[in-house]
Amino acid sequence: MSARPVEGSGSINPVEFLASLEALEADALASGYLTPSDLENNLRLRFPGEEYDLEFKVQINRARSAYAASHPLPAGAECRICRQNEGSPGRENLRVFAFLLSPSREFFFQWTPFPLFPQHGVVIQTQHSPMRMDRQTLEDGAAFQELAPAYSWFSNSDLPETGASILEHLHYQVGRNTMLPVMRAKSRKSLTLRRVEVQWLEYPLAAIRLLANTPADLLNAAEQLISAWKEQAPGTHSLNLCWRWNESGQSELTLLFRSRAHLTPEPLRRYKTEGIGVIEAGGEIILPVPTGPEALEIQNEIVHQGRSLCLGILRGIDPWKAQGSEQFASLTGRL
C-alpha cells in the first residue's frame, strides 16, 4: 500500500493517513497477521503506586514471546524492520504503507505483530540508518503529532542499554490514545520559559514534561534539554520520549532521562533480562512468559509483587537518584 502525498505540500493529508491506518488494520485482521487474541491473551496487571498517586502496569506479553523473529532476512534487508521484509517468507501477511513524514523524509507504517496495546504501530524510516536522539528526532515527532493527533508517539534512544530496541534502524512506536503511567504523573516543580511550561514529574525515573500550544513550540526547549543531558556523559546518557496532545489541547512531550550506568538491578533480571524500553520506562513493564522449572513460581511473584517489581526497575534505572533538584536546575538553566 502507498499513501498519496497532499498536492504541493510533499506530506500526506491527516485524513488520508488515518484512513490508510484503518485499511491496513482491516487487511491485517483479515489476513491473520493480527488477531484479537494477540491482545486478549496477554496477562495485564495494574498496581497502585501510592507515593506517586499513579497506577503502574505489568504485562506478560504472550504474543511477543511466541513471535518468531528468527526468519532469515530477505534480499536487500539489513534488519528485521527494513521495508524488504514486507511479504517475505515467514512474514507473508505483513503489509505496510509508505508516506512522507515531511517533504524530504520517507517513512512507512506497519502494525506490530506483538501489540502491547490496541492499535500499536511502528513508524519506520525507509532508509536503513541508526536511531537518533537530537533535533531531527524532535522534528519527526512534531510532524507526526500534526499528522495523527489521535495517536501518542514514543521514541527509544540512540544508545544501547538506554531503551534502544533495533538500534541500527530509525523507528518510532505509536498508539491510538495510548496513555502510559508517566503521562499521568503530577508535577513536582514547574517553571515557564518562552511560552513553554517545564515540569519535573513525581515519578520514580527522572522525567520532565514540556507543555505548549503546538509541537513546534516545544522544539527548542526539548533540543536544549536533550543536548545538555547528553553532554554530561557523551556515549552514556540518552533519553526516551513520549508525545501526545493532552485533554487541554496542548502539545505534551515527556522526556525520560536514561544512562548506560544505571541498569535493571540484578535481582530483578530474574523476571526480565532484556533492556528497558520507552514503554516500560513510561510505567508499563513488559515481561516475557516465564519458562523453565521455576515458571509458575516466577509468575506468582509477578502477580503478587508486581508493584515492587515496577518501582524497583524504574528506580534502578533512574540516573538522577538523590540529585533530582540539582539536575532539574542545571538542565533548565540551559533554556
Describe the structure in your own words.
With 335 residues, the chain is an alpha+beta fold. It has one domain (14-67, 79-332): ATP adenylyltransferase (HIT family, subunit A, 2-Layer Sandwich), CATH 3.30.428.70. It is 28% helix and 25% strand. A hairpin with an 8-residue loop joins strand 4 (105-111) and strand 5. Helix 4 runs antiparallel to helix 5 (215-232).
- Counting H and I runs of at least 4 residues, what is the number of helices? 8
What proportion strand? 25-35%
- Any low-confidence stretches, pLDDT <50, length ≥5? 1-10
Which overall shape is indicated by the principal axes computed on the Cα atoms?
globular
Helix content: 25-40%
**CATH architecture descriptor text:** 2-Layer Sandwich
Give the tags:
globular, alpha+beta, HIT family, subunit A, 335 residues
SSE inventory with pairings:
Elements: H1 14-31, H2 37-40, E1 43-49, E2 54-60, H3 62-66, E3 97-102, E4 105-111, E5 120-125, H4 135-147, E6 151-155, E7 171-176, E8 187-193, E9 196-201, E10 207-212, H5 215-232, E11 237-245, E12 251-259, H6 278-281, E13 284-287, H7 295-316, H8 324-332
Parallel strand pairs: 2-13
Antiparallel strand pairs: 1-2, 3-4, 4-5, 5-7, 6-7, 6-11, 8-9, 9-10, 10-12, 11-12
Overview in brief:
By secondary structure, the chain is an alpha+beta fold. The chain has eight helices and 13 strands. It has a single domain (14-67, 79-332), classed as 2-Layer Sandwich (HIT family, subunit A), CATH 3.30.428.
